[in-house]
Structure formats: structure tokens, C-alpha cells
UniProtKB/TrEMBL annotation:
Family per similarity comment: Belongs to the DapB family.
Function: Catalyzes the conversion of 4-hydroxy-tetrahydrodipicolinate (HTPA) to tetrahydrodipicolinate.
Protein name in the entry: 4-hydroxy-tetrahydrodipicolinate reductase
Originating organism: Entomobacter blattae
Enzyme Commission number(s) of this protein: 1.17.1.8
Subunit structure: Homotetramer.
């Protein structure tokens, strides 16, 4: 039977592309969307009054909205026993705990980036971080996005940083250096640096560099089209239908070891 999909954030940059992706997927049916403001919207699917009403008639909701919605959305999806494909970034540690709690009741695929290329680039970055000594290789993560983006560093940059920190056997928070400015002092040995650029309509670019006194390795990922994220999220939605409650990642969906 076709997977019944709903979209939260249906009027957004990713949400509007999700409509096309779901409609183009034969194994899925688009049940509707949720938007806070229904006036003057030209969307080819019903808009529901609340997320809970939408979730009640779906197998899975794909959610690309805003970090402030997490608590409310977790409650609505658990209450209606609906799977959750969560792309929203900028999530606070307290809200992340709510996501973990909800995953005991429903299947959740959470990814800061639904691109398979980013998943693989993150793995390679972690392998490099493990192989190259922290005493001589400085790691810097630079991300560039469009001028409308509201969170920094990007979710992808933070996920890459976490994977790198884990590979080095450290906690990211203890070694993170973000947005340097002023008299910062010299770089801390083993620090993981983050820089965020916001300009024009850049869709999403991430660069991880490993620099020693003698050489530099740079790993770059550039998204050319936002449908990349929408396609990955729909793939995750179809995958989630046959999975038990739990917190899953795009690595699980892609069945990487
Ligand atoms: N994981 C991934 O692969 C990707 C993740 N993202 C993340 O997805 C999120 C959305 O990105 P994008 O589509 O560019 O953003 P947009 O601002 O274009 O769209 C978000 C939509 O969510 C709704 N929304 C905004 N704020 C709230 C709120 N407080 N409560 C409920 N709904 C809200 C709005 O719809 P309305 O006003 O109609 O309610 C809006 O259209 C961001 O967190 C972004 O970082 C983006 C790209 C890829
Ligand atoms: O807001 C965006 O646009 C994007 N957000 C995600 C992030 O924060 O990493 C993914 C992608 O880079 C686009």
C-alpha cells in the first residue's frame, strides 16, 4: 500500500519542493500539509488546521520548519503514532532530549542533511580525523548558506564536527571554536573551528580542512539544488514505514554499516 505522507512547513523553500517529490513518487500519496497561515496559498493539497489533524491521517510527516516547533510537533506525532522525518536544524539540547523521548514511541529519521553525498563526506572526514594526529592537523569547518538562514553553524557543520570529535575521542563542546573575533589568542591544539558565511542564495556548501605545517587536505560538498534534500527526505519517509520506534539517521536509511 502507498505510504501516506504529510508535509509540515509546506510553504517553505524545502516544503514546496517536497510537494513535487511526493507527487512524483509512485509508492507515496500526498495527504496534505500544515501551514500556520493558510491565506492566499496556492498549494495543490489540503492544508490542515493543526499538525495533529494532519498526522492523524498520515503514516509519516516530513518536517522542515523551525527549531521552535520541536516540542509541539513531538507531542502531536507521538499522540497520533505517526512517523517523523525531521530535517529542521538549530535544535537546542533540551529539545533534542524531547526527540529522543519521542523515539521510544514512534520511528524518527532525523538528519541535518538528507543528501547521501553529505553522509559519505562526513564519514570520510571522520576517517581523516582519526588517522591524522590532532597535535599537528588543525580542523576547520566552513559553511556557506543563503541570506535567509536563521541558525549557525549549520546543522550539517555541527553533525560533521560531532563525527570528527567522536573519531578523535573527544566531546565537541570542549573543543569547539566558533566565530572567532577580536583578540582570540593562538589556536588551541586540537580545536575544531567553525565559520559561517551568509550571502545571496547559496543553497548549502560545507568544507572541512585538515591543515598541518606541511600540507592541507580539503573536503568540499556543494548542494546545487534543494530537491536533493527533498528526495532524501522522501526516501527516508518510505523507509520509515516498515521500521519500529527508534531514532534513525540517514546512514540507517542508506543502509551503510
Ligand atoms: N536536513 C536537511 O537536509 C535540510 C534542512 N533544512 C532545515 O529545514 C528548516 C526549514 O528550511 P527552509 O525550508 O529553508 O525554511 P523556510 O523558512 O523556507 O520554511 C520553513 C516553513 O516552516 C514554517 N514555519 C516557520 N516557522 C515556523 C514556526 N515557528 N512554527 C511553525 N511553522 C513554522 C513556515 O511556514 P508557514 O509560515 O506557512 O507556517 C515556513 O514556510 C530549517 O531549519 C533548515 O535549516 C533545510 C534544508 C535541508
Ligand atoms: O537552511 C538550509 O538551507 C540548510 N540547512 C541544513 C543545515 O543547517 O545544515 C542543510 C543544508 O545545508 C541547507
Amino acid at each position: 500500500m502507498a505510504t501516506k505522507i504529510g508535509i509540515a512547513g509546506i510553504t517553505g523553500r524545502v516544503g514546496t519542493l517536497l510537494v513535487h517529490e511526493v507527487l512524483a513518487t509512485t509508492e507515496a500519496v500526498l495527504v496534505g500539509g500544515y501551514s500556520r497561515n493558510k491565506e492566499g496559498k496556492n498549494i495543490p493539497t489540503p492544508l490542515f488546521q493543526t499538525l495533529a489533524e494532519l498526522a492523524a491521517v498520515c503514516d509519516v510527516v516530513i518536517d522542515f520548519t523551525h527549531a521552535s516547533t520541536i516540542n509541539q510537533h513531538a507531542k502531536a506525532l507521538v499522540q497520533t503514532q505517526c512517523a517523523w522525518i525531521l530535517g529542521t536544524t538549530g535544535i537546542s539540547p533540551a529539545d533534542q532530549k524531547e526527540i529522543v523521548k519521542a523515539s521510544h514511541k514512534i520511528a524518527i529519521v532525523q538528519a541535518s542533511n538528507f543528501s547521501a553525498g553529505v553522509v559519505l563526506a562526513t564519514r570520510i572526514a571522520a576517517q581523516l580525523a582519526k588517522a591524522l594526529p590532532a597535535s599537528s592537523y588543525d580542523i576547520e569547518i566552513v559553511e556557506s548558506h543563503h541570506r535567509q538562514k536563521v541558525d549557525a553553524p549549520s546543522g550539517t557543520a555541527l553533525s560533521m564536527g560531532k563525527a570528527i570529535a567522536e573519531a578523535r575521542g573527544i566531546e565537541l563542546d570542549s573543543m569547539r571554536e566558533s566565530g572567532r573575533d577580536g583578540i582570540t589568542g593562538p589556536r588551541k591544539t586540537g580545536a575544531i573551528g567553525f565559520s559561517s558565511l551568509r550571502a545571496g542564495q547559496i543553497i548549502g556548501e560545507h568544507e572541512v580542512s585538515f591543515t598541518s605545517a606541511d600540507e592541507q587536505i580539503i573536503l568540499t560538498h556543494k548542494a546545487f539544488n534543494r530537491s536533493l534534500f527533498a528526495k532524501g527526505a522522501v526516501q527516508a519517509a518510505l523507509w520509515s514505514k516498515s521500521h519500529r520506534p527508534g531514532l534513525y539517521s540517514m546512514e540507517n536509511v542508506l543502509e551503510l554499516e
